[in-house]
Write a structure and sequence with these properties.
The protein is of the alpha+beta class. 21% of the residues lie in helices and 37% in strands. It has helices at residues 3-11, 27-30, 69-72, 82-90, 108-114, and strands spanning 14-24, 40-49, 58-65, 96-105, 121-130, 136-145. The longest helix has 9 residues, at 3-11. It starts with a helix and ends in a 14-residue tail after the last strand. The relative contact order is 0.19.
């Protein structure tokens, strides 16, 4: 229900990112997003693990809008979540985040990164982060192996 809950997941795990240059968004991702997805985006590939676990619990491709090139240069891939670093370096505040969760089969690249068989079940989480002007500034696409991750929600019933 809030960005703090996304950060809880980040606190309980560790991600290591590597910069991947400027790329257009993959068509399969761009088609699922309501917002400006044109142009080239800064790409980061991350592997998320839990302390003590040898196998990754997620592989993440994160894309940052090109208008934040100055801030991207100051991102430390070994530090906190990318959107938090953008808040600190570019003065961007997350005004809204969307999250779409879908069961998908692992592509060859995702399977290799996660150490699973191609076409294995994964949980894909697509997150979009918007600033106060409603502009999309970061997109992340995470794939979680079906046997290493569970998504839990707790809902308070009003009554």
């Amino acid at each position: 229900s809030n960005v703090g809950e996304i950060l809880q997941y980040a606190r309980d795990t560790r991600a290591t990112y590597a910069a991947g240059g400027r790329v257009p968004l993959p068509r399969a991702i761009a088609e699922q997003i309501a917002g400006d997805t044109e142009g080239r985006w800064f790409r980061f590939r991350g592997v998320r693990t839990r302390d003590g676990d040898a196998l990754p619990i997620a592989i993440t491709d994160a894309y940052i809008h090109a208008r934040h090139a100055d801030a991207v240069e100051r991102i430390d891939p070994a530090q906190s979540t990318l959107f938090r670093q953008l808040e600190d370096t570019a003065g961007i505040a997350v005004h809204k985040a969307t999250q779409d969760i879908q069961a998908v089969s692992a592509s060859a690249a995702v399977a290799e990164a996660l150490g699973i068989a191609r076409r294995s079940a994964t949980l894909r989480i697509l997150r979009c982060y918007f600033d106060g002007k409603g502009r999309l500034f970061e997109i992340s696409v995470s794939h979680h192996p079906g046997d290493r991750f569970a998504y839990s929600m707790h809902i308070d019933v009003e009554g």
